Amino acid sequence: MNVSSAATSTLSKEEVRTRVDVTLGMIFFIGSWTMAFGTLFLSFLVLRQRVGVWPPEGIVLPSFPLATVATLILVASSLGLHRAVRAWDAKGGGGEREQASSAQRDWAVGVGLGFAFAVLQALLWADLLAAGRFPSSGLYESLFYGLTWVHAAHVVIGLLALLWAWIGLSSGRYGPNRLSTVSNIVIFWHFVDVVWIVLYLGFFVF
Amino acid sequence: MSGQHIHAEPTNFFRKHVFSVDHKVIAKQFLWFGLIWLGIGGVMAMMIRWQLANPGEPVPVIGSMLFPRTNGVLDPATYNTLFTMHGTIMIFLGLTPLMIGAIGNWSIPLMIGARDMIFPLLNCLSFWAMFLGGAVGFISLFVPLGATEAGWTGYPTLSTTINGVGSGETLWAIAVFLIGASSIMGGINYMTTVIRLRAPGMTWQRLPLTVWGIFLTSVLNVLFVPVIGSAMLLLIMDRVFGTTFFIPASIMQGAGGGDPILYQHLFWIFGHPEVYILILPAWGIIGDLLSFFSRKPAFGYRAQVGAMVAVTLLSAVVYGHHMFTTGLSAMLGESFMLLTMIISVPAEILFFNWLHTLWKGNLRLTTPMLFSMGVIFVFGLGGLTGIYLATIGTDIFLHDTYFVVGHFHLTMAASALFATFAGIYFWFPKMFAREMNEFLGKTHFWFTVIPLVTVFCLMFVMGYAGMPRRYYDHTSAEYLRSLQHLNKYATHAAFLLGAAQLVFVYNFIRSRWWGKPASQNPWEVGTLDWTMETPVPHYNFKEIPEVFTGPHEFSNPDIPDGKDWISMTEKLKA
Ligand SMILES: [Cu+2]
């Protein structure tokens, strides 16, 4: 991976400009997506209000331990990616060689944990399906499947984007400008992470 | 501005005309796309009017071709499909691409002095997402059991599988979702472009009002379109995967159902801002055009911008006025009523500023000016009748009558349509380097405005007399038979309105290919789009211009060399 050269070069004015441009676009995008998921949570809260007892009695709930492990894994994944991007972003300074190699390790761990989360999510569904609970079984199932489906779609998009960024990073094609693309993909991943935490709190904690 | 690169012009046909990333090409794609859908939606309106005036009689000319099974008669299901798809098409596939897609794409970079949108690829994706949405909507017309019949609002349980059988409703939801995705992509692009790519000297207070309007619309698009996107996802899940978000427990035989009113909340959280999504660009366009053709500065420029910002903010907190009859709590209902009434304050500010811009102006009654003044008129009529719908007491009586239909057609449909026409007539010479015929343009205007106002004012009368909307045959109700002659007048006026649009089509096509070559600045205005050569070169500005004056410096005594206008790139005399 040949990103250490990017880390040592100081960003030119134009590169800073591009960075601000794309980050601003990403902020608006996240704002928009917050409204999209906000709508889903609003629906969750309203419908939950409609049911006297929550979670409804006598149904099989998704596995709490599995969901907790998945949450921790996703947070760790975000953390790893965050550290990698921060290291690549740091300009100049000594010892950039070790820094770069540890950044690569963080990146690999972050993406790997992302895939692990996807597997756990699939297990959560498989568990419920095995217990005979389907999306059409009731309101709880509607909400659980519906909201996690939409979230999972974003996990898949995020993972594909991360892989795409990885290919770019390892081919060494990325200068500082392209690094802002990588950093934006990671911002999106953090967003996916936060949405999951809210889902987790809604379904498993409160 | 060094960030804006100049790429070589593509030579490949697909890159140049189909999957182009050039904002000017994308603007024209949106323009043709929107005009074609406007035509389709318009023909649907004509068939609806035919049925209202002559219930159960075969539709003349096109009827036997479109509905051979019934020998040209609209059966009730087809009638439902027509009014549903008419609304959906006009809003999402007609006005949205024309005003936001075409005029937005054309005017933003040229008016702020940028070489292109900031994210050209996203711009291209935005068009093709909308195209795909349109394609899905079009296909839904031909599936077994037909397109959706649930009304453009798609309320459950009309729209859930319990009533909406067949795949038409699902395809409708997918189409709305795709078109929404397109609007969000466009909105993000427009906002970032206006914030980041304004030419040096193009301060926020020198920004043409057109750009202000589209910018604020983009804010609303980015924030509120995702709400309907999510609602559509939930609706699709209810229909396809058997979830019960919007299906009440009573229908589910007690298996813990959802809440159909929830859908109404989600729909109108988006739906009310959508009204302003369509009207803000219209306000912006006429704010500029009224000044340009009055040869006077836009009166109260800052007040106009402030009023548009205020409306943008208020639009987020008034949606409950669509739901007064759903059993909203009294306190909530009164709050929504009050907030809705407050919107008339900034709206009045805009009105007085427009009128004052015209006052004692050196009016040039060109076609774009006529349409701009038309916006003031029809929006005034629509706005005033809105007060009765914002008031709970009168709304409960008028709800779901033709009064509502007349109201929203004048406010969001006719106003937005007139501003779109004003914009097309205004920018046509720059877009296609040819002039449109003024005589045909004025004919188009007068034969549009008079029948249009007739149709919708008759709807006020009929609605007040209690005629409900979405009924297949009003003559089946004893008390509505006395209104039938009004329905006939309205239909005649509507046909005249429809015929007038053929004048526009003829003028547009003829001028596009055989019109008189346009000069560089036929309207004599100073905004950056008109200071550049015609046709606009690839990547617009070789040198990014520097701006020294505002967009409306007309008849300023400090303008050098005896003109009454000054380009934004020129300096006033010290
Ligand atoms: Cu409203």
Set out the fold topology.
The complex is a heterodimer of chains A (206) and B (574).
Chain A lengths: L3 H5 L4 H38 L13 H26 L6 H35 L8 H32 L5 H30 L1
Chain B lengths: L12 H6 L4 H31 L9 H4 L9 H37 L7 H21 L27 H29 L12 H32 L19 H35 L6 H14 L15 H29 L8 H24 L1 H7 L3 H31 L5 H27 L19 H31 L13 H4 L43
Helix pairs in contact in B: 2-4, 2-5, 2-15, 4-5, 4-6, 4-7, 4-8, 4-13, 5-6, 6-7, 7-8, 7-9, 8-9, 8-10, 8-11, 8-13, 9-10, 10-11, 11-13, 11-14, 13-14, 14-15
Bound molecules: copper (II) ion.
The site of copper (II) ion has 4 residues of chain B, from helix 8.
Kindly provide the name of the CATH class of chain A. Mainly Alpha
- Number of separate domains of chain B: 1
H/E element order of chain A: HHHHHH
Instruction: Write down the CATH topology of chain A.
Output: Four Helix Bundle (Hemerythrin (Met), subunit A)
Rounded to an integer, what's the Rg of chain A over CA atoms? 20 Å
Query: CATH superfamily name of chain B?
Result: Cytochrome c oxidase-like, subunit I domain
Calculate the terminal CA-CA distance of chain A, rounded to whole Å. 44 Å
Query: What assembly state would you assign to the polypeptide chains in this entry?
Result: heterodimer
- What string, H for helix and E for strand, traces the elements of chain B in order? HHHHHHHHHHHHHHHH
Structural class of chain A: mainly alpha
What's the CATH architecture name of chain A? Up-down Bundle
Give the name of the CATH architecture of chain B: Up-down Bundle
User: Any low-confidence stretches of chain B, pLDDT <50, length ≥5?
Assistant: none
Unreliable stretches covering 5 or more consecutive residues of chain A: 1-8
Number of domains of chain A: 1
Tell me the number of strands of chain B: 0
Inertia-based shape of chain B: globular
Q: What is the total tally of β strands of chain A? A: 0
Number of helices of chain A: 6
Major sheet of chain A: size, sense and barrel closure? none
User: Can you list the ligands bound to this structure?
Assistant: copper (II) ion
